[in-house]
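Hi Q.,

Before the meeting this afternoon, I wanted you to have the ME8 prediction in hand. No need to reply - just skim if you have a minute. The sequence and ligand are here:
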Amino acid sequence: MKEKFYITTPIYYPSNKMTLGNAYTTIVCDALARFNRKQGKDVLYLTGTDEHGQKISQSATKLGKSEKEFLDEMVEDTKDLWKLLDISYDKFIRTTDDYHEKAVQKIFTELYKKGYIYKGSYKGWYCTPCESFWTESQLVDGKCPDCKREVKFQEEEAYFFKLSEFGEKILKLYEEHPEFLQPKSRVNEMVNNFIKPGLSDLCVSRTSVKWGVPVEFDPKHTIYVWIDALPNYITALGWGSEDDSLFKKFWPADVHVIGKEIVRFHAIVWPAILMALGIELPHCVFGHGWLMFGGDKLSKSKKTNEHECIDPRILAPRYTSDAIRYFLYREIPFGYDGNYSTEAFLTRFNADLSNNFGNLVSRTFSMVKKYFNSQIPEYYQPTEDDNMLKDYVLSQVKDVFEQMKKFDITKATASIFNIFTEANTYIQKVQPWAVAKTGDEKRLKTILRYLLETIRIGSELFEPFAPTSSRKVLDALGVEDKLFTNLDNFDGLKEGELKPLDILFPRLDVNAELEALSKLG
Ligand code: ME8
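Predicted structure with the ligand bound:
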């Protein structure tokens, strides 16, 4: 049986249009999903939208729309964006999907019956116009942080999940399975900030929020956010429905990739819910860092999102989705915060994609055309230079696989670019144009074949990250296989003719682009 790989993004709130921040996680997961598919695994890549709660209702009302009408539009916009960015998700879940709502009700009822959910009262500072509860620490100058109006202390009947009973069990989980929560620094955050001070029970229902899934046995309550959202990872697989074959096949998840601000819910609340239900835990929760812009976290509610110059809907058609994807993988050290800046993006575009990868491909292809009429040459006795190139390439292949096992897309892309850099250095060293002048055809053929094999291997590895440009190169080389093949040798190319290839990443005039983007912003 094929090995399986189940990967998820968070389900995003469609209260506003998705930002480059949401795209970041989705793009990261896409490379991991594609990489595992190319390894021949049976991959399920899940993403979706988290559609209940007050904020959604308010956003819809503001636009004079019903929730459903508003959400359908936002979901369409989200799916369009994922298409634009070449996201190869296998399933898109909406928490308003009927099967999800039914399964969440079942989870709630089961937890209640098992004694993990009990009725209590929720106390907090209530803002009547916003219909929102706030904790003392969320208030700004004692007022509502959203509308800045007066709040009053209020109590409301609510159900609670006994999270407080799970502290020890979660600590044991981290100890016995150090791979469960990554990167390692997140474990300390969870232990020191939340578990050691003592976990509080979690409020899981509201009577004041109407846009939500009703509690089956007490329908004046709606199920409150996290306990509706987190189970999407199993309801999407048909857990609790008549057909749970996907659940049987794909659960437990191999990795939930999320932003660091929701690690607490995924690494404490979610395992606690699963333990209470007696369901296996996911193998790994990876809490990556934030994409920052101008010193701030890029977020839906902030003004930064209005900057056209960081809107992926503008960037992708202008610079290709491959370029945006590559930039995010390479520039933001995976697991840590990193900056998006237009200058850095344009600089990397020119240095890495245009001058390094693009130029390597185009100069090699044009030499094969010039000297051998575009016929892929055979190779002869390799020299020390050739062997060094080959050894280096094969060592980087190993590195890429090792990094990808650790989900480290930043180091993996760096290793792939090491291959391209090395090949460019090799060209300078062996000077094929000078060899051509000597008339040593065998030597020239060997050099060009070694370069083409290097490009083949580099493009194979790069395909999960930059699927469009890499596939163009692989097609031009006559590599049809969609799975990784011949990554441990230089005999992967078949005899034949190189197909013509356009310039992959035409060099950009940085100043002109900066000016054009600033006019849009
Ligand atoms: O939290 N940098 O949804 P959300 C990096 N519905 N990642 C970012 C980012 C940034 N600047 N901005 C957003 C929710 N993200 C819940 C999740 S899951 C069961 C429920 C990404 O729309 C990152 O993955 O606020 C973050 O965790 C997620 O978007 C937050 O999306």
